[in-house]
Amino acid sequence: MKNWLGKSLKHRLSLLIIVATLVPLLFLGFFAYRTTAALTEEKAKISGMNTLRQLEAYLATMVQDVENMSLFLIGNTGVQNYLKSPEGDFVQQTSIINFLTNLAFSKEYIANIIIEPLTAKPPISHKSLVGSDFTDITQMYPKYYDEYPKWWSSVHRQWTFDGVRKVITLARPIRSTDKFKPIGKEQINLDQGIIAQQIRESVLEESGFVLLLDDRNRILAGPPEMETGYLLSSYYPNIEPFEGPSGFMDYGEGSAKKTILYKTMESVNWKLVGIIPSEEYRSQNRYFLTLTAVAVSVAILFVIIFVLVLIQKITKPLSALTNFLKNSSPEEPLPAIPVKSIDEVGQLIVSYNKLSSRIVKLTDEVKWNESLKKEADMQALQIQINPHFLYNTLSSIHWLALMNGDGKIAEMVGSLSEFLRFSLNNGQEYCSIEQEIAHVNNYVNIQSIRYPDKFTFQVNVDPGIQEQHFMLKLLLQPLVENAMLHGILKRDGLGSITIYADCDEEGIHFTVVDDGIGIALERLDWLRTQLSEPPVHEKRISTKGGYWLRNVNNRLLLHYGKESGLHVESKEGEGTRIMFTIPYTEYGNN
Fold this sequence. Notes:
5-stranded antiparallel sheet; elongated; transferase; Two-component system, sensor histidine kinase YesM; cell membrane; HAMP_dom
């Protein structure tokens, strides 16, 4: 297999394109199947939620009707008089029973209505009550009705002369309409069988079902095999809590996985829960899985045939290009190849011809820039007047001045000697920032003796920057000299020159500021134009001025790139600010 692949580009391209095409096809088939399965599941969820909404509307109407009925009972004059009277009255009882019977008439979901006095009088119900499992909430929470106006019970049994049935009770206290004091209680019993029948008729898919839960997740109604009063977690252990008023979740894994939908009835805090086995989705997706497999197989066969034909047509001109390049000599410039087509291969040959031309041009540019860099550095060194014998002679003069007790001459000659010695710097192009600033200080010391009380000089540079970073030498001193000669010495009174430096992620930022005479706007525009031009060979120093700034700018551009050039800001009569930035390089971040 390895030999077959290495023998020809045609074989490798064929295999690569076939694999690169087949993998997306397989993924497309898999994705289409998964998408359809997801859409089937989403459709079942939407349909299930619509079923829960319909059930919610039915139950909400029933609940609202019962609660309105309970309020109507409280305000009924006969009920109020019976509960307020000290003794029972048979006529009153008969009237109330008839009233309750008429109230519950035609409402099949009303199992019973009970009026219970707080005194020893017997309770009244429209169906004779034999027994009940009902336990009022006040037996557990005596002050419940002080905070809540009503209470819905869980499912419990009730015995009447009609037999035993399961009911859900709405209980609430009855207060007198004049003094608002408790005088009795009322119970309206809903027939749980009617609710359960409605719940069971709401089928989700083929085998899904719906449950009605109370506020504690106990079953109020559901399939016959699920007992009322049990917690949902008894049938589905470790089920996650329901979050929000509605939603869905997955329960279980594999073939036992189920989708659980839920919706909360806000008025009574009951929950409608729909449970759909995931097997329902799988059975619906088997047909589409078979169809997808057939379509992908046909597509794979077509792709293989198409790729083999296409590769044959592509590799034929590439083989011709390879044979042409084999005959080219590596010692000579890359020859131009004739273009015989306008397709991708033809464009490749055009790009190759452009590339060979660009390589020649870039080679010439590199040689030109190196020549400019050396010229600028040599000019900077030559103008500094730095022969060895000169600063050696100055060193001797320095010691003679000290021996004769002439401190001013000794200081000036010493600074000049160090100034010239730094210019050589052992032939190195780079120095530490600390050395560069020391060089500027030597120059300033010389000028301060020549021009006493004419200027002040400050360096605001963090010692850490001076000690840890390196820079191209002879950058700051020409800027200080420019500020002194063209700004400070031409103004009246005492002037100042300050060097600032700070660093960030972009590099080290230098600023030389003076409060000299500044630069006229026309002159400033000319200077900025000069600085924006690319570096060129200068046979001699320009008589128009600005040479030092152009020299520093050219050296910055050649050594650090176009982002490191000088930026000049100035106002006539106020001063000048010159800025540049050097990046962190193998020298600048040493």
